Structure prediction request, 519 residues.
Amino acid sequence: MNSSGRHIQLLDTTLRDGEQTHGVSFTPDEKENIARALLKKLGVDRIEVASAKVSEGEKEAVTAINRWAAEEGYLEQIEVLGFVDYNKSVDWILETGGRTMNLLTKGSKNHCQRQLKKQLPEHVSDIRRTVEYALGKGLTVNMYLEDWSNGYLNSPDHVFGMMDSLKDCGISHFLLPDTLGVMGPDEVYAGISDMISRYPGLNFDFHPHNDYGLATANAMAAVKAGAGCIHCTINCLGERAGNASLAEVAVVLKDKMGMQLSINESHIVDLSKMVENFSGKWVSNNMPVVGRDVFTQTAGIHADGDHKGGLYESNLRPERFDRYRSYALGKMSGKASLIKNLEAMDLSLSEENQEKVLKRIVKLGDSKQTITPDDLPFIIADVMESKDYHHIKLLKCSITSGLDLESTVSIQVDVGGNIYKASGTGNGGFDAFIDAINKVLGKQEYTLPKLQNYEVRIPKGGQTNALTECIITWQTGNGTMKTRGVHANQVFAAILAALRIINFQLHERETSAANQPAT
Prediction:
């Protein structure tokens, strides 16, 4: 039963099952903010916000969420996990202003007999008693068959016995969890198809877990079999390997199965970042849809293909999620990668300067994993300023610094084809380098000009691994001169700026000597 075009509900359980992630505990304010965003911005159909009776803090959070939801018209979409305890969970939910209880029952013989120490008839009797009390108090009741996947695979008589006994007692949705994530897509399809065939007219949800990395694939199989709602979480939060990722499930059901959803895709990343910050669990950079790098092309051949007609694009366009495609700069970059970044910044360079900039990017890529677009203006300025004088070349440089210790440096340089070694000390790595290089330059009868100003900066909003630009103002005989250096290490950026003034002045001296008339 595929029925392309059906509306599929998504139930987000980030605030209940997602909070069962090791190390995650949301405050009441965080819970309320996530709930508001899930319903009002993202547009999920239902949210499961807590387990009954957990704590006073949990009760405070659920009460605040229900109060807001009642004012905004979302109260029927708020659900709370309850237990087979007759009136205790029901009363707790009623005290918070809730309307819907998701009753946790045992969907496998193993769980029922070994955890509850009960036979099926006794468990069913307890369930009926709790359901009747809840319905009598005006609650909507849905029912989890916990460990349904193992129950269906290993004790189907238990599953069908429960369903036969409870199908007519007023339960709105039967929630089928793959509690331990043990099923594959074929098993999910067969199991849910069987449930729907045996119990037509009932509403079945599927609640996948990701232990085998199959949560999204299993969600597809469940929908194909006829399930009307899929349970998921933001950022795949949940026990062990997590639940199904809402972002993945949403785009797969829409793009690959043609299903209708209520989700506003442009807010998926907003919710992901909010939950990242509140949970302290950061998504991997390559996590589908929400990862930082998933719309970044790194290989030059991919950028070239996009430049020539979007050859490496798909229906999974970044604009759907209020994102944009970017092209990484680094040692794997090609000319097209540079061009795409220049276009995005509304910059243009000559062919010659493009080659120079690309050469510098590739070289920097060997010392820094990736160059960000924010680094590009620094690189361009550095290249455009360069006159490519190489009277002195730095071959080796080792710097040692320590807290409350004088810095030391050892260098090896090539001056006009002659190799020199020197060491120096100073108040910091750059000062130690100047001490060492002056020992070499003294043999060339050259004195480094006086440093007048020293400015270091990284791109606005840059990270700790951003490129560093160092601009040094030198006091020369004719006034002042500025040189710049760009490097991932700020000390080496300053060293490159110093080498630039040295090379420039050595070139000027050599040119001046060559132009002197013979005597």
Q: What stands out?
A: The chain has 17 helices and 16 strands. The longest strand covers residues 392-402. The chain has three domains: 9-279, 296-368, 392-514. Residues 147 and 179 are 5 Å apart (CA to CA).
